[in-house]
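Our preliminary data section would be incomplete without showing what the modeling component actually yields. Below, a chain of 374 amino acids is followed by its predicted structure, encoded as tokens that our downstream tools consume directly.
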Amino acid sequence: MAEALTIVLVGGGTGGHLYPGISVAQSLREKLPDCRIVFFCTARELDRSILEPTGYEFVEQPIVPPQKSVGGLLKFWNSWRDTKDLLYKWMKSTRPNAVLGLGGYAAGVGVKLAAQRKIATAILNPDVIPGKANLYLARYSQAICSQFEQTRSRLPAKEQHKMQVTGCPIRSDILRRPAREDAIKRLGLDPAQQTLVITGASQGAQTVNEAVLTALPRLKLQGWQILHLSGKDHSVSVRQGYRDADLSAAVVDFTPDMADVWAVADLAISRAGASSIAELCVCGVPSILMPYPYHKDMHQRANAQVVADAGAGILLDDQKDRIKNADKLTPILESLLFDATKRVTMTRAATSLGRPDAAHAVAQVLIQLASAGR
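Predicted structure:
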């Protein structure tokens, strides 16, 4: 009998990197129950809080994000060296069959070192525009698992043949999202009302919050209720904003139960991170997308453009100004709140973009690479 596979998933620092990895790990276990799965994450408390409940084995890397200052770069390179030493010793004693980079600075050492040691490697690239880390790691990867075909032209020409459109893995609880009536009860909402969900991802988004709080008082919301995921740092101001506007809203600081949120959503106002886009599409939620406006490469805007081009959402550039954003948002939101036919059309378009099998597709890529390398 062949020895069970050992597969490493390396990366972390944000939920956007770790949650897709957890989904892939779940699919690996479904396909290969004896597979050993090890995460190499960062030392941030967030990583531990996400990974501990899963029961998966994980090792904290000393890697830290690079900073532009001389001292920051020196600290980064020292942490890279220490991380390389850690991974070298681990890979020498426990040679994995494949390594998947989950994106970001924390994936760099593991993928590069594995490639140098002739271990099968792949990277996950859920954004249309690859980040600096993934552009660097593309040369060390045998497969690039992407959410969008539009990514191919953004890769170096000599690496484009490695890309496979797998979709972005999302959490299994979202794929098995509950019945609307059950989710409505748990969230304390009215089953007779339609639900507008507002979210700026796990940390919230101040400019989205401000735009919504300025736009909503201008609208008639008959038949609609509001579920606003404010982010912990913004919850006090958002709740006060609704009180000042004399509007009723369910304001939630943060919830890990996004399956419930998407089960009740009839329309969403959201940022355009890769995981958010994947969840909106798989769940068929029509959306107004306000991409994060402070990234140099504007990669969230590129994500949102794919959705908008497919007719699944409306792209609204974040002007970083409360009034300017509200002036643009108000007519778009008003038209969608009271045009059920348009929302149905957007739902169908979103569903056509969704890849509910993404985690299984990425897991299969890893299994094939690992098996070929034996």
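Residues 122 and 143 are 5 Å apart (CA to CA). The first strand starts at residue 6 and ends at 10. Preliminary results of this kind motivate Aim 1 of the renewal.
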